[in-house]
Design goal:
single chain, 289 residues, alpha/beta, Metallo-beta-lactamase, Chain A, seven-stranded mixed sheet, 7 helices, binds zinc ion
Length: 289
């Protein structure tokens, strides 16, 4: 599953960019395994963003477990985990994230999609409760702050990291992020459904001129009519948005588990023709904005 990792890791040392993005899980909906998905990977959403020394984690899908194993090799962990939302494929990795079981870890877990009085802490309480899981979140020994905000608000994480957020078009809500640091911008926009009347102006506003734009490409335009209302988009729509907003690198993300490597290779070829700088996300891939 990490066959690409060596190659991507080498890329990591070949530039002095202060911001870097690493993909630990690129699937949507449910994790998948097997030789037919080995190239792109089968873990669900988890992306590591480094802003200098600062560690930001986007989503806690099954890929989070592998990030945890990597972090456990080093010393104390201090990180901000931003959830796009609390559907299972974006939070199923939490219990299995090693650093949460270490008392020298400090984590802030943020979400901005909840409404009706729900909090980030409530959502995780409900995930980690009988009869769904054997232990509650009290099992974590890390110091954890659960932080609530409203999608649309701006978060100044430090004096040099600014995070803009928007609400996305997804059942039960979701949040899109734009992380700005050192003159660069990385946008993370999953899960969201496009609208037939035209491009989503809120997303266009968020991703304008971004260096990296990660987008929900669960389906193709051909498949989409069968999935209206599921809350997801297509790789073609992502390319149209990226072009319109002048994005530098568009990353197709949140692949449907039924899309095997052969299928994704085909998507990749078509995407390159449409937008030569675009890439299809693979587990282990590292980008330097
Ligand atoms: Zn999802
Ligand atoms: Zn979802």
């Amino acid at each position: 599953m990490f066959s690409q990792l060596g190659r991507w890791a080498n890329a990591l040392t070949s530039t002095d960019s202060k911001m870097q993005v690493r993909f630990w899980g690129v699937r949507g909906s449910i994790a998948c395994a097997g030789p037919e998905v080995q190239k792109y990977g089968g873990n669900t959403s988890c992306v590591e963003v480094r802003c200098g020394e600062r560690l930001i984690i986007l989503d806690a899908g099954s890929g989070l477990r592998y990030l945890g194993e990597e972090l456990n090799k080093n010393g104390a962990v201090n990180a901000d985990l931003f959830l796009s939302h609390s559907h299972m494929d974006h939070i199923c990795g939490l219990l299995f994230f090693g650093p949460l079981h270490r008392d020298n870890t400090q984590m802030r877990i943020w979400s901005g999609h909840l409404s009706n009085g729900w909090t980030t802490s409530d959502a995780i309480d409900d995930l980690m409760a009988a009869p769904l899981l054997p232990v509650s979140k009290d099992v974590f020994t890390a110091k954890i702050d659960y932080v609530d905000f409203k999608a649309g608000e701006e978060i100044n994480l430090s004096n040099d990291i600014r995070i803009r957020t928007i609400p996305l078009n997804h059942p039960n809500g979701a949040t899109g992020y734009r992380i700005e640091y050192d003159g660069k911008a990385v946008c993370y926009v999953t899960d969201t459904e496009h609208r037939p009347e035209g491009p989503d102006e809120i997303i266009l506003g968020l991703i304008k001129g971004a260096d990296v734009f990660i987008y929900d490409t669960s389906y193709t335009d051909d498949e989409y009519p069968d999935y209206v209302g599921y809350g997801h988009s297509t790789w073609e729509e992502g390319a149209r948005l990226a072009r319109r907003a002048g994005v530098k690198k568009y990353v197709a993300f949140h692949h449907d588990p039924s899309h095997d490597d052969k299928f994704m290779d085909k998507v990749s070829r078509k995407l390159h023709k449409m937008l030569p700088s675009a890439v299809v996300a693979q587990e282990g891939m590292v980008l330097h904005p």
